[in-house]
Amino acid sequence: MNYGLIGLAATALVTYGSAARAEDFTGPRVEATIGWDQLRFDLARYGIAGTNKESDIAWGLGVGYDLPLNANLIAGVEASVTFSDVDKAFSDGTTDYGAHARRDLELSGRLGTRIGSNALLYGKLGYTNFRVGQETSSAGLTSVDTVNLDGVRLGTGIKVALSKAAYLKTEYRYSNYQDGVSRNDVVTGLGLRF
After folding, report:
1. Which helix (H) or strand (E) holds 12?
2. How many Å apart are CA 90 and CA 109, to the nearest integer?
3. What pLDDT score does 141 carry?
């Protein structure tokens, strides 16, 4: 199931069907997200040529704060934690490897512009830290460890007001980490302002 397409469709429907009055999109907020997550691994770090990718579900929680710059521009900061079900196994013929997605932390800045009375189109740039569980098995011996990878995240999305306090969003995110690991996400989320 393509969760990204579901999120885009839901956001489009709400954009054209919502009766919500003009949302100012400012102040503190909290949100929950769910969607599609794809991780790409550069296998050179395991002594194997090429790259490999795997996709699964991701979900998370975020908090943020937004300020108006003028009548249409909104700037903000946000922090989030995301979890993923992505697991990948591969082998060089003598050694088996496993990579297991753990938590991802993000701290980013965002700049958006209002579209109509109840939507906000935005872009974001930030820092991300991705924790990966690693497993190596060879000659009957298995070792397990965890590595934290620093990275840069770029994203774009649209938020649509459902009411003065609630909103729906759809967001695309690209992350580039150390050690040749990268990520593509398409998530949809429900948030509240207070």
Report:
1. helix 3-17
2. 36
3. 85
**Burial environment of residue 6 by CB neighbours within 10 A (0 to 12, 13 to 18, 19 or more):** middle
Tokens of 40: 């790409």
Q: Compute the distance between CA of residue 160 and CA of residue 43 in angstroms, rounded to an integer.
A: 40
Q: In degrees rounded to 5, what are phi and psi of residue 11?
A: -65, -40
Residue 141, domain member (yes or no): no
Per the structure, the count of domains in the chain is: 1
Q: What is the CATH number of the domain that holds 71?
A: 2.40.160
Task: Domain of residue 184: give its range.
Answer: 3-87+107-128+152-193
Q: Cβ distance 135 to 100 under 8 Å?
A: yes
Render pLDDT for 22-76 as a digit per residue (tens, 0 to 9): 467 999 999 999 999 999 988 777 677 777 889 999 999 999 999 999 989 999 9
Residue range 88-141, pLDDT digits in tens: 887 877 888 888 899 999 999 999 999 998 999 999 999 999 999 888 888 788
Q: Which helix (H) or strand (E) holds 173?
A: strand 166-177
Q: What six digits make up the tokens of 24? A: 């100012």
